[in-house]
User: Fold this.
Amino acid sequence: MNNRVLSLTFMAVALGAAASFVFAPSARAQSSCDLGFALTHGGIAETDVNGDGLTCEFNTVDSVTGVWTTIGLDNVPPDPSVPRQCPNPSFVPSPWPCGMSPDRNMNCTVCTKSTPGHTVVVDDQRRGGSCVSNPTLCTPPDKCTTASCDAATGLCVFTPVVCTASDQCHVAGTCDPATGACSNPSKPDGAACDDGNACTAGDHCQAGQCTPSVETICPAGTCNPATGMCS
Assistant:
């Protein structure tokens, strides 16, 4: 078990000391939260399964690192028919003590998302059931991800945008999550290339362009770029 998993496990155990195990589906009203959790308006969107704008949150801070952790639940019992899947690719599955909040579906797995100074933990139960009947469930987290629905499982399939090199004097770039556009970095000057012209030699990349070092000079006529022969 790595340090990250260990810290999450310790956090869950500490939470268990302040909050009971997850309540039975029929045991609480819709406006209630697990013990130790605060009813929150406009909280973690990924936990708002019923879409009423209300969630339940538990916040703690690591006194050594200063990292905040927010554990999120919906304010209603879970629907057992909802497929088990992290809300989107920004969350990753992580092991968790079985049945300890927020593991409401009792599969010993939660979903975590980390940004500088903040970790969010939610259950691996996304909003609204099968995407077959509700395709809007498959909403990508950014413009560098495409989303589709798997009709066989009812689960969303998220696929990252793959950037490729635009030509032989460029390398594959990276995708900008805000725009979905790929960067287009040039290869280093001097990298080998082929301009497709048989009348040139020593082709190399220069400022992103394939540039010849030598061109054939015909004493009479012109050079045929397909053959490199003078006419």
Observations:
- Residues 1-6, 12-30 have pLDDT under 50 and may be disordered.
- The radius of gyration is 28 Å.
